[in-house]
Amino acid sequence: MKSTVIKTTGLRKVYRGRAAVEHLELNIGRGEIYGFLGPNGAGKTTTIRMLLGLIKPTSGRIEIFGQELRKHRLQILRKVGSLVESPSYYGHLNAVDNLEAIRRILDAPKSRIAEVLDIVSLTGEEKRPVKGFSLGMKQRLGIAAALLGSPELLILDEPTNGLDPSGIQEIRSLIKRLPAEHGITVLVSSHLLSEIEQMADTVGIIRQGKMVYQDTIAHLQEQAAGDLRLAVSEPEAALELAKRRGCGGSLQESRVILPRMSDARVALLIKELVENGHAVYRVEERRQSLEQFFLQVVEGGVS
Ligand SMILES: Nc1ncnc2c1ncn2[C@@H]1O[C@H](COP(=O)(O)OP(=O)(O)OP(=O)(O)O)[C@@H](O)[C@H]1O
């Protein structure tokens, strides 16, 4: 079984009589990419600040690597890298010199600079002054700095905020490589489901300070999966076959619309269609249903 990297119990933070985080139970396993999802003001940054020991919880318990944060703060945080808000850097210095300043504080080996530049794909750009970097490159430099101390856990607060699509894509593929290639567990926050869906294994959805959903992305997709749309050569006959197999369904604009069903059942039906001489051009899931499911969750319709 996977060991637990972050576990919070009854975590709570109150600001001026108002709870920003309430009874939060986070559970993050080793090697996971955990997507921490919620609308603006839901309490993501407050939670992350507590996990990093930057602010004190009003009550509750935080365990990281099986140890209580309150009692073993320095020992734990030595193994945690983070990027909260925009990274700070010296614009007139190049990437190597910026990283060197942090490396000295952390007392990391000099060779680590080239390693982290390679991980974030900034090799070749290291001699340019950082003020000429794109926003995405600056963000990757921030992640490189967070990796300097060879952390086992990386915590990133909205790392793609403000980036253009190619910048978002670069950060996403970088994050996805970290567990398998570098053994790092990642907690990444976002307010966009589409983003978390594409990189995380597990998702925790927070609303008004409370966890309203915590499960694997696969399970979320299963729960949220909508109708299937099949484009086939003979829609009427295909629908008849689906009905005979107990799948139900209807026709819409020459597409066979089937209700949600398991992957195994979809595979069986398609196999049968093909064996019966149907050409299957396309199998689509109505993707907006995941967004709808998320909205339902954050608006309080599903718990
Ligand atoms: N220092 C503070 N003093 C008072 N209230 C605060 C403070 N920091 C956060 N809050 C409040 O706590 C709530 C949660 O804020 P938080 O920044 O954690 O949310 P978030 O999910 O990270 O949202 P965003 O994506 O907008 O940063 C908000 O209502 C916010 O106004």
Proper CATH architecture of the largest domain: 3-Layer(aba) Sandwich
Major sheet? 6 strands, mixed
Provide the helix percentage.
25-40%
CATH topology of the largest domain, which one? Rossmann fold
What is the terminal-to-terminal distance?
27 Å
- Whole-number radius of gyration? 23 Å
Shape estimate: globular
Ligand catalogue: adenosine-5'-triphosphate
Order of helices and strands: EEEEHEEHEHHHEHEHEEHEHEEHEH
In CATH, what is the class of the largest domain?
A: Alpha Beta
Summarize this structure as a short list of keywords or feature phrases.
Rossmann fold; Alpha-Beta Plaits; 26% strand; 303 residues; 6-stranded mixed beta sheet; ABC-2 type transport system ATP-binding protein; 15 strands; 2 domains; alpha/beta; nucleotide-binding; P-loop_NTPase; binds adenosine-5'-triphosphate
Description:
It is a single chain. This protein is α/β, with parallel strands linked by helices. It has 2 domains: 4-222, 3-Layer(aba) Sandwich (Rossmann fold); 227-285, 2-Layer Sandwich (Alpha-Beta Plaits). 38% of the residues lie in helices and 26% in strands. It is built from 11 helices and 15 strands. It has helices at residues 44-51, 73-77, 95-106, 111-119, 135-147, 165-182, 193-199, 217-224, 235-244, 263-275, 288-298, and strands at 4-15, 18-24, 27-29, 33-37, 59-64, 67-68, 80-83, 153-156, 185-190, 202-207, 210-216, 228-232, 250-252, 255-258, 280-285. The strands form 3 sheets. A 6-stranded mixed beta sheet has the order 7-8-9-4-10-11, sandwiched between helices. Strands 1, 2, 3, 5 and 6 form a 5-stranded antiparallel beta sheet that branches. A 4-stranded antiparallel beta sheet has the order 13-14-12-15, covered by helices on one side. β8 (153-156), α6 (165-182) and β9 form a beta-alpha-beta unit. α4 (111-119) crosses α5 and α5 (135-147) packs parallel to α6 (165-182). It is globular and about 70 Å long. The two termini are 27 Å apart. The model has no long low-confidence stretch (mean pLDDT 91). Bound molecules: adenosine-5'-triphosphate. Adenosine-5'-triphosphate (ATP) binds at residues 15, 20, 38, 40-46, 191. Keywords: ATP-binding, Nucleotide-binding, Transport. It comes from Paenibacillus typhae. Belongs to the ABC transporter superfamily.
